[in-house]
């Protein structure tokens, strides 16, 4: 039956491909060939290749019964779409193969995921059953389902119980799950010798509705530079100051996980990325020891104009994680320099209360530049990207001297989207180093070598390609700008 369901899903994708609109299609970010994508799942390195699976609805560009889409790459730059790996349809995953992870054991690739069933009306999430399931593959392409491996939550009454992340520690398999107990979130841990039989170990961390939200989706737990990191996607946080303005967040806590399965935190809860569109981040350990991370570069309930073009959703660029005291740093994976086609160096110099058109334009671009704060007097200065000829469309990245923040403004970034996000710039900091990636419908800004990131979707018209450097009320001093055209890989 699984094979027949997969065939049916592939036929739906084939049919939709002919109708797909490509104006917003990413050139070098992973997106579904057609239909809907959300969370990255099952990030894993298997027989010399990176595999990325993702939550996928092949029958429309809306969320629906979740399948696992699949792509693989040797170099993190070029990706090959593979057949859909999992389709829902068995009694235990009838309404969705929800998020999960992948591991390699004895040269076999295993997927561990949540089987989802609506017990009442579809969409009534107070009446659901969630179980943890296993599937495996000998070739990394076609998967055989093994059924349920964890049938019930450790306490009766826990219905939201999902997104297994499995990893190896101390000669055993460990699994982290996100759960909701009443209105409070939990991080639950299980252990296994064989991936089939799981024992409940602990509630590694118990949160409280205030201030932790009501559910921690997509947990990940890993060692990084001598500490343990709990990375998760909390639901139900309220905006506070400049933080938590998205519908849901992507947060992390640094601490230590002991052998009995208890996580003790040190430091604050922090947001991982400060853009509008970043959720459900997951990591893998690369063979060279790097911790690589991808997120869904969208947000629940936000405008998604590409749905009208029969596809929706993209993943962030892969990022290398490192720890800097109590904070995580995210840098673009070093392999991404492989996207660079041609380099232009631009000397903008000082811009005095003006808006200067650069003699470069484009949609697929990478920038490296510095903003020289010490040499500037402007209230605001920075770049306007993806500008239309009449400048009605524009996406701004600038330093706000009064607020001392680096701002990403997509108030005029094209179809559907709006809003402003920003990150703090320390008092006394004299320059800001920026690395910016533009694709047809996204912008990722890496601030000060990945100390902060802002990732957002934008939907300008294809011909909105101009770039300006601007300064408001005073002088804005720009360091040398390196600008690369990036490859169109048609992902
Ligand atoms: C996170 C999430 C997961 C769930 C999946 C369903 O975005 O809600 O908790 O497994 O998406 O698609």
Automatic annotation (TrEMBL):
Catalytic reaction list: Hydrolysis of terminal non-reducing beta-D-fructofuranoside residues in beta-D-fructofuranosides
Superkingdom per UniProt: Bacteria
A Gene Ontology term for the protein's cellular component: cytoplasm
Biological pathway: Glycan biosynthesis; sucrose metabolism
Alphabetical keyword list: Carbohydrate metabolism, Cytoplasm, Glycosidase, Hydrolase
Domain Glycosyl hydrolase family 32 N-terminal, residue spans: 29-332
All residue ranges annotated as the Glycosyl hydrolase family 32 C-terminal domain in the record: 346-484
Transmembrane found in the keyword field: no
GO terms of molecular function: beta-fructofuranosidase activity
SMART domains assigned: Glyco_32 (SM00640)
Subcellular location: Cytoplasm
Pfam families, sorted: Glyco_hydro_32C (PF08244), Glyco_hydro_32N (PF00251)
Major subcellular location class: cytoplasm
Any single biological process term in GO: sucrose metabolic process
Protein role: Enables the bacterium to metabolize sucrose as a sole carbon source.
Family membership noted in the UniProt record: Belongs to the glycosyl hydrolase 32 family.
Protein name: Sucrose-6-phosphate hydrolase
Organism whose genome encodes this protein: Pseudomonas saponiphila
